[in-house]
Amino acid sequence: MKPTLIAQLLQTLAPWRSAPAWHIAFSGGLDSTVLLHLLVTLAKTETLPPLNAVHVHHGLQAAADAWPSHCQSVCDSLGVPLRILRVQVQPGASLERAAREARYQAFAEVTGVGEVLFTGQHRDDQAETLLFRLLRGAGVRGVAAMPAQRPLAGGYLVRPLLEVPRVELEAYAQEHPLKWIEDPSNADSRFSRNYLRHKVFPALTQRWPQAVSSLARTAEHLNEAQGLLDELARMDLHAADRPSPFPWLHVPSLALAPLRELSDARQRNALRHWLTPLTRLPDSDHWASWLSLRDAKRDAQPVWRLADGELHRSGERLWWLPATWSEFSDATVSWPDQQNPLELPGNGQLKLMGNALEGPLQVRYRQGGEVIEVPGRGRRDLKRLLNESGLPGFVRGRLPLLYRGEQLLGVPSIAGRWAVPSEGWQLHWMPQSCDQGLS
After folding, report:
1. 309 and 345 together in one domain
2. Same domain, 65 and 90
3. How many other CB atoms are found less than 10 A from the CB of residue 395?
4. CB 362 within 8 A of CB 375
């Protein structure tokens, strides 16, 4: 015998019953209205975490101005606190995507550590998502569609109705008689998802009555396949996660040699896994840039520019630089008090260790042609010293140089390559994003 909807939900919610709080994304539509009613009903007989509702107001259509008051009325009748969050949707090519990003950003802001946010997507939504992403040419991760749970801020986003068809939600709403909002935009077939819902799926289900459940099941299979690909990626990345020769340079990096030993497909799989938390990934056509970076000459310093930063190759190593990396000032900075660290705008902190120096002192950045006195070696060209050190090119422009007048007094030494100055002092640089410094 098939379990009732409320019994099915109770079983699904079992892993989350010890959470500090439950939030529900409450649009006022059918799905979230049913989910809210189910949760309130469960709370009458079960000990559950505190429940509150969150309504995100996008302000994209006039009809939406009445929805917050409707949601407040529903929540008041059920005894559930409601938060109404107003967001700004950034204009762009896809209004649907921009609204979704604004909505989930708002959800992330209200979800505390260990807390759970529930959304009302159901099995029909899962099937629509799969077909929509297939038509866009998504890979396995994309067509695996919506996971039943995923991290969100310090907590989790959970979709407890993913295995429930919409028709069951409609039946429950009629049985209890619930009132919900019908979004006028849901009937507009100019939006891709609405076109699938109103034009494509009726034709599919007329020919194949089990089309929705079959597509949802396919999404589950693909999700399992993606899990296996993630396991393989973690194995491959473990081999490439070798210590950096510059441990003070705390940016994500990988050794290239272990990746070269893999097939092209496994290289892409490992890099997708590594880059996913760092940047939006390119489509298949743009992965040719990875081959260009990988196969460039050894003395080259190739760069692969991605949506949220750059992947550099230097010293047979891959380095990820976020878009914010270049946001620092290379203006000259005076250092009037050597006893205190010098804050470098956008570039961390510089300390003078050991004996004090006669001033006035300044910190400048490379212009080219700099020469420095190296104990035991005489005057040496700074560029040549940096080449000997193997310091990645993207760091060299940020390397703080200590001057007195026009005399270059010192540079933070690189990985022990240069001797400590004989005068008994040294520079210690802690770049902005680093856990450790460079002396």
Report:
1. no
2. yes
3. 20
4. no
Q: Is residue 30 annotated as involved in ligand binding?
A: yes
**Banded model confidence at residue 164, pLDDT cuts 50, 70, 90:** very high
Residue 70 corresponds to which amino acid? H
Q: What is the pTM of this model?
A: 0.78
Domain that holds residue 172: 5-191
Average confidence (pLDDT) over 272-281:
91
Do both 186 and 57 map to the same domain? yes
Flag whether 330 is marked binding: no
What are 209-250's pLDDT values in tens digits? 999 999 999 998 998 999 999 999 999 999 999 998 888 888
The answer, yes or no, to whether residue 147 has pLDDT greater than 50, is yes
> Is 329 a known ligand-binding residue?
no
Which CATH number fits the domain that encloses residue 60?
A: 3.40.50.620
Give the pLDDT band of residue 273 (cuts 50, 70, 90). very high
- Same domain (yes/no): 321, 340: no
Asked if residue 241 belongs to a known ligand binding site, the reply is no
Query: 């189910």: which residue's tokens?
Result: 38
**E-assigned strand segments in 399-439:** 401-404, 407-410, 425-430
Element spanning 136, H or E: none
Tell me the CA distances in angstroms from 79 to 47, 238, 257, 428, one per residue in order. 16, 50, 60, 59
Among 165, 191, 217, the domain boundary falls at 191
User: Does 114 show up as a binding residue in the annotation?
Assistant: no
**Residue 359, marked binder:** no
